[in-house]
Amino acid sequence: MRQSTPILVEPGLNGSMQTLRPKAPSSHPVLLVAAATAVMVLLMGVAQAQSPNTVVEGVPVTVPGTQSSPWSISNNLMVGNTLGGTLIIESGGQVNGTTARVGSDNVTGTVTVRDANSVWANTGAISIGVGSSGFGFLNILNGGSVSNTTAEVGVNAGGTGTVTVSGSGSQWANSQTLAVGWYGNGTVTIDNGGAVSAPVIWMGVVPGAQGTLTLSGTAGNRGVLTTGLLAKGLGNGQTGDATLNLDGGILRASADRASFLAAQADYRFGFAAGDVVIGTGGAFIDSNGHAIGISAALGGSGGLTKLGAGTLTLSGANTYAGGTTISDGVLVANTTSLRGPVLNNAVLVFNQPVDGTFSGNISGSGSLKKDGAGALTLAGINTYTGGTQVNGGTLVIAAPDALGSGPVAFGGGVLRFDYTGSLDRPITVSPGGFTVDTNGNTQTMSAPLAGSDPFTKVGSGSLNLTGNSPLTGPTSVQAGRLAVNGSLANSTITVQNGATLGGNGTIGGLVVQNGGFAAPGNSIGTLTVAGNVAFGAGSVYQVEINAAGQSDRIVASGMATISGGTVQVLAENGNYAAATNYTILTAGAGVTGRFANVTSNLAFLTPSLSNDSSNVTLTMTRNQTGFAGVALTRNQGFTANATERLGVGQPVYDALLSTTATEARAGFDLLSGEAHAQAVSVAIGESALVREAILGHLRGPLLTPPGASIAAAFSADLPGSKSATVMPAPRREARYALWGEALGGQANTNADGNAAGLSRRTGGAILGADMLLFNSGPGSLRVGVAGGYTQSRFDLDARLSSGRLESGHAALYAGSRFGAFRLDAGLSLSWSESDIRRQVAIRGFGDLLRSQRPGSTAQAFAELGYGFTWQGLALEPFAQLALIRVSTEAGLEQGGAAALRLVSSEQNPGFTTLGLRAEAQILETPLFARGMVGWRHGFGDLTPQALTAFATGIAPARVFAAPIDRDGFAAEAGLDWRATQTTTLGLTYAASLGERTRDHALKGRIDMRF
User: Fold this and answer.
1) Do the beta carbons of residue 506 and residue 487 sit within 8 Å?
2) CATH number of the domain at 667-1009, out of 3.40.190.10, 3.20.20.150, 2.40.128.130, 2.30.30.100?
3) Which pLDDT does position 639 carry in this prediction?
4) Virtual CA dihedral for 251, 252, 256, 257, nearest 10 degrees?
């Protein structure tokens, strides 16, 4: 022991302690014994003391390595008692003690053990930071070593203990418990190659205590903490605060412990969320050959690295952001506890009791295992190369790059694909079996399946096996479609209810159960069976055929046992002969039993089956069902009869012969030429626009206000004239009139179950001129002429048809007045040309058709009204009659075999309208609002039709459009501006609403009278 000033060793009261305290200066070290009872002696440089306490206080005491033997203290060592104390063990110095206390009430005690071979060895416990406000420091530096049994850091409430273990070779060995923050504040820092060990480490034990442990370092020089358990609190719900900082150091396990670093929810001495923080230096967890668990929540910005042999299980709700590295051993985690990205160079196990998704990327040379009953979804871009093992639950592959490379082994569990693509990993089926769920997707597996345990296909969607698989276990198809386009020659496949087996490959055996489907090939193909075939009652053999005599086929080396079931024929497009034979099943060991039923999707070819000793043959024969026998509407029926009259060899007939009933009905609708009948409906609609334009002019304004100031009404005519009142000019019967109307409209007609719905758009203009022939007393007569042009475009989407109708119009009209009565009438003639384009698309047949043909529309119309005023309103009840004749001339469609000859025809509809018109002036302006409501009734030929025949046929067919509404509601709303005495501008909205048709029009009008 070296001291720079003399040391007086005095006995305490009743011999209770010895105190090393400076007394007087000296030029060389001396030891002073103050009383005979003192037992501190200095013999040959060795300082020894015996007493209940040895106290170091005052100036620092240094124990160097030059002493000949260790300083041995047999009683309790107190560093700092009434004064602060410092003990330095350096340069190989050694102190052997029993128990020690560093720091006391209001006093700071410091022990520093530094340099290689410097040792402070204690056979008992040490306490760092004792007393209500004492400070204790233990520094183990640069290779120093401290050992003891139990250690407490931050012992008393208000006391603070701090331990720093730093430098390569620095060690602190606790053979029993290390408590960091017992009642007081305790801090332990391990860094830069320092090492601390303790079987159990307690932190933040008593409420009010604070325990902080920081484990840091850098590569090649990391701090190491070795323990079997980290715990917190009293275990009864009472606890202090604890912070475990993992920032570059190594946390090493010394024993197997599931609760190695536990959460409070899992272990009564566990840690709360936020207690464990991973810094930017990262957390290095060394399981050291043991099986340990960490359920405490790991937070922070750093990453976690798994070191050493053994198993580390992470089960907490972790939030650390720096990713995960597995360097050795096994890391067990789940989608909540594992944070990505992951560098896996060992073994990563997902123990997934519940469903979860891991979106991080997994790389490295290691393998991945899936345990637990839940579903694990891999959604990242994963490049690990060590293969995959599934032992339970479901492994979901969310994207093509989500499964790492290497072989895949299954000891139970499900592989689910959530994408359409392919997988080339070899798969081994171990005890527990292997299930693939395509989950509605189409997936191809090109690598072989190996093993002797069951393989099962589940889920909607299709699985295509193209590899040559040595699998000897049974295969079951429970849902969706399994296509074997490689080999499963050693596996018998059972097809269950609702599932389908297809492909052109080889299988070991085939059992089709009730509700199961066997559908060889991928279109038409052959399935080879290296064994027996069995079709159960209720099973379905789905056979595709074509007109060339080819069909799906099953060829078996063993026996075929048929216990009922149905052969379902699916015919491809083509021109089928009147009778064709197909061999659909061949069995080398013979065929026993028969199918109970056979069906076909063709309406006009009947399937039948026959057996010989080794084969089942399907024969397709033309039946007695006529085309009209499948028609459901009158348009379909007329067209079906005309089509059947074409006979065999005609492309349209032959195409319909190979259709289903549904396809045939759709074909009849497209062949019918319904658009030609709908063109008549469009012409009738145009006639109403012409009629209403003329009558709208003739009926003129209902309300003629009294005269007013002309200057006020037309101030622009008299420069400088001003008036506050603007009134409309007085209305007088003009001798001449010129007028015009621009119009646009849109109409939609719903389908009626026979004809398709129609949409129509019309635009055009009508111009007219008339003169007053006489105006005598209460009566007058006006006559005139009108002409115009309209164009309508129409679509029948359900019939793949569209058209254009262009019309020129000419009319004569007259209007008379007899007091309050008004009678207007007219005759019009319209010349039209229709341009119709159609498309026909039937199984195996298509055609594009076009026709242009003339037509005409003639109509006579009249309207009677009686006008009167009521409270400023002009009212007029009225009745209208229109008689129409639509004529279409003959024509011929241009196109292929579906082209039609169009026969000339005439149709004569008529309409009456009863209603009420009203008009009112808006304030004292030259603006007049008007409106109309009415009931429109139709009679005569209200169902437009066309008479057609195939260009290559002779039988005509009548086709009908959707009927025109027999009764409907008519309404108008408009606004007139009497700009001058002679000119009126008007805007009108008109609507006609019926059971099937909604017709809307917008019209702009100019009327000049002089």
Assistant:
1) yes
2) 2.40.128.130
3) 95
4) -10
